[in-house]
Write the structure tokens for this entry.
Amino acid sequence: MTNFPLTTINDRPTLTSIAEALLPLAKPFGVQIKVEEVQVKSSRDASTIAFLKLGKPQPPEETINTQRLWINCHCDYPLASERIVPLLIQKLRQLNLQNYQDVLLSGYLEERNKPLWVVKSFLTSTQELLRDWAKWGDGAALVELLNLTLEREGISFRSITKEATLHLFASTLGSILPEKSLIMEAIAPLLRELVSPGVQAVVLYGITSQGQIDPITETPTWVEWLNLTPHAPPLEVTNPNLNLELNPELNAKKLARKGDEAAIKFLLHKVINPDLKIYLATGGIDVLIKQQGDLLHVVAEAPLCPSQAEVVKPIVRYLLSLKIPTIAGVRIYGRPTGKSHPDWQFGKDFYPRSTPRSSTVKQSQFQKSQFQKSAVVTVAPPQKSSPLLQPLRSSLVRSGLFCDQVNPESGQLDPKVALVWG
């Protein structure tokens, strides 16, 4: 599917152009699309605080998005969210809407004010998703990120990771040799920014290729070494055709076996998102973890609640393979993004536990723990809203999934609205 050219005003896409981009997907279902923009809390809202608790860096004050996109789907029959929501989310991600932190999608039956369903999805950019994995030395994610950086120059990359060193092979299709200075100037700042326990150094090879790159057998024309840590010793590269060990997760596994929660989270995130292309297209399944005593609690969440079949078996199998000494069992929970309580839960002990067997996390603990990355969906009422919308607002607040919000200065809010009929 080709990208729809968005009309922008002051570098912001108009709501009408967003609605028109979604229109081809809505028409086959007989759905009418209504797009709204609503204001959410400032940089100190619950979701930002939760991100900090999870060890994610706080973005600068001025760059935090405070706009929420709301897609209303009106239909004359009860359309299931599973049929249309994945299509709309993929399209929204293709549009790269950097001005919005998340989107709410709601389904309405004609002439009824109460939604049949409401789904929340974060609009995390492709670059940010790739960075989260690349900083752990994930070769596929880093290569995809570098390819995005230099795609206009016609330069592509392949990678192999050996222990803490990443070997990058840069080439252009044809006989033209990639210019070393151009590549280093473009990627060195990015690689240094991603310095982490996953990768300490990079060896960059320049290759001329007439077709598919084979980094094992190709002979490079030039080689460049880049230290990513201040005191890393240089590596003598005499023969680039080394018997390189394909082991991109080695350092993350070492840290995970020591109980490092960030490393465990990264590894489990990869396990339940095995296809990088699908992960980038859909946003994938997110993972939140917390170790309490000898139990590891894992929350898997996505716009549509992940099924036990796609989450439980891969996580349990991988944790068993890691053999983390401090973890005797796992409790896994599945929930939709934006919901505070899980839709399902599963528990397994790997071996007899040293402490009395405990149950899964209590409902009240979900409200207070760091599992609240997505927080509770907040819905802001429009200024001078129609009396017809009041029952909808009241029902959403009573559901417990939403909380009322009023602008602290004006006491109300005026969302912008665009309407396109499918």
Observations:
- The two ends are 19 Å apart (CA to CA).
